[in-house]
Amino acid sequence: MSFTEEQTAFRESVRRLVARHVAPIAAEIDETDRFPTELVKLFGEMGLMQLWVPEQYGGPNGNLTMMCIAREEISKVSPACASIAGLNTMFIMPLLHFGSEEQRRKFLPIIAKGGVVTAIAISEPQAGSDVTALNTRAQKDGDSYILNGRKQWCSYGVEAEFIVLMARTGDGPGADGISAFIIEPKKMPGVSFGRHERKMGFRGAPNTPIFLDNVRVPAENLVGEEGKGFRASMRALDLNRPTIGAQSVGLAQGALDACLAYAKERKQFKRSISEFQGVQFILADMAIQIEAARALVYECARAGDEGDWKRLNLLASMAKCFGSDVAMKVTTDAVQIFGGYGYTMDYPVERMMRDAKLTQIFEGTNQIQRVVIARELLR
Ligand SMILES: CC(C)(COP(=O)(O)OP(=O)(O)OC[C@H]1O[C@@H](n2cnc3c(N)ncnc32)[C@H](O)[C@@H]1OP(=O)(O)O)[C@@H](O)C(=O)NCCC(=O)NCCSC(=O)CCS(=O)O
After folding, report:
1. 163 ligand 1 Cβ < 6 A
2. Is 364 close to ligand 1, i.e. is its CB under 6 Å away?
3. What distance in Å separates the CA atoms of residue 314 and residue 311, rounded to the nearest whole number?
4. Alpha-carbon gap, residue 288 to 45, rounded angstroms
5. Mean pLDDT, 10 residues at a time, the chain of 379 residues
6. MF terms per GO, please (predicted)?
7. Is 208 in the pocket of ligand 1 (CB under 6 A)?
8. 118-225: same fold as 5-113?
9. What is the three-class DSSP state of 85?
10. Element at 120 (helix H, strand E)
11. Residue nearest to atom 14 of ligand 1 (CA)
């Protein structure tokens, strides 16, 4: 794949940061499930947390290609840490695409300073793939809304200063009744968080339910018009799913790199196992799949950077789905190459395999991605 000089330099700078600050703590974060606040600070100093913030709000005016590069590079050693770099995307996008100028002027300069954690809250216990089934209510009361309900899985919400949260303002079912609100969980009475989910992988990235008990939110915090929340969520997902594809590519590349080193060093039958064709073919298949997924991810990023929303919608689902399926296959094969040692926590490939599983599930399951793709094909 070819990249501009600027993109290559950016990749190199992220690579150096990863080698120095992320690789040494990747296994420890998985083991302890601790949220690495030092990376929030570091990624903020480097401009990654605020990459999407346009120049006029004090940000570096980054784009989807740059976000994919950052997430790919960090994911080679830890996709959970890579998620930190991208976590503000899902808050920023609804504001950029649906919010008011006042909202952009109020919140984006704060994020532009770096080191600020935000989140999005869409899912509920009964509303995962089917976003329109959400039940959280927002009742208009003078110049405020009163929010009641429960959100599920919210990534980083427990650490967040601001969350864009979907709630039902209309009585009818379906997408039209869903609106987006900015809540400030540390300041607004009535917001509380449940137990940290204990996950198989992506440890160190907190997911918790959010409980809303008569939370008063000023009407000025409604993002866009009433009833536009579903569309805002979908646009945010369209712009984040390619970065999950990139994260998956990085994860798979990290597993392949580990396998190449191990296969050369590990000897059986008086030869390094890399000399056996059975192993060589597995390595070759890994490389083919990774390169194909990478090409799809950056083609998708190009569509996003050109503002081609229709093409982005299709390619985002393809990049997320294909990339994560490749990550699952490659990391599973990586454990096989490492044999018994691969199944132990002394080597990174078992963690990579656990992390890969989530990439097929979050940000819309791969079955949902196929629904999106098939609908577009059959339109
Ligand atoms: C299953 C879905 C893909 C589609 O759901 P629906 O069938 O219920 O909705 P549609 O009829 O397709 O659309 C309704 C309405 O919205 C407009 N729309 C649809 N897609 C887009 C888009 N990409 N961009 C903009 N607008 C869009 C569509 O045109 C319709 O409007 P009109 O009627 O034409 O005016 C969807 O529900 C889906 O993707 N489900 C998966 C959800 C998911 O990924 N969840 C994981 C979120 S993970 C996360 O965010 C972490 C935090 S957390 O969850 O709290």
Report:
1. no
2. yes
3. 5
4. 36
5. 94 98 98 98 98 98 98 98 98 97 98 97 97 97 98 98 96 90 98 98 98 98 96 96 98 98 98 98 98 98 96 98 98 98 98 98 98 97
6. acyl-CoA dehydrogenase activity; flavin adenine dinucleotide binding
7. no
8. no
9. helix
10. strand 118-121
11. 175
| Burial class (CB within 10 angstroms; exposed 0-12, middle 13-18, buried 19+) of 214 | exposed
For ligand 1, atom 12, the nearest C-alpha belongs to 372
Q: Tell me, in angstroms, the distance from the centre of ligand 1 to residue 176's CA.
A: 11
Q: Where are the domains of the chain?
A: 5-113, 118-225, 230-378
Count of other CB atoms within 10 angstroms of residue 109: 15
Query: Which amino acid is it at 294?
Result: R
Rounded to the nearest whole angstrom, what is the distance from the C-alpha of residue 251 to the centroid of ligand 1?
A: 27
For the record, the structure tokens of 228 come out as 């536009």
- The tokens of 334 are what? 């990586």
pLDDT at 304: 97
Q: Is the CB of 98 under 6 A from ligand 1?
A: no
Six token digits for residue 272:
């390094």
ipTM reported for the complex, 2 dp: 0.95
What 3-state class would DSSP assign to 318? Answer: helix
Mapped onto helix, strand or coil, the DSSP state of residue 223 is strand
Q: Which atom of ligand 1 is nearest to the CA of 313?
A: 23
Residue 181's φ and ψ, nearest 5 degrees, are -130, 145
Radius of gyration of the chain (CA): 21
CATH H-level superfamily of 230-378: Butyryl-CoA Dehydrogenase, subunit A, domain 3 (1.20.140.10)
User: Which sequence positions are flagged as catalytic?
Assistant: 363
Q: What is the pLDDT of residue 356?
A: 98
Atom 20 (ligand 1) nearest CA: 234
Q: What residues contact 377, with CB distance under 8 A and at least 6 apart? A: none
For domain 5-113, the CATH architecture is Orthogonal Bundle (1.10)
Q: What is the CATH number of domain 118-225?
A: 2.40.110.10
What pTM did the predictor assign? 0.97
Total number of residues shown for the chain: 379
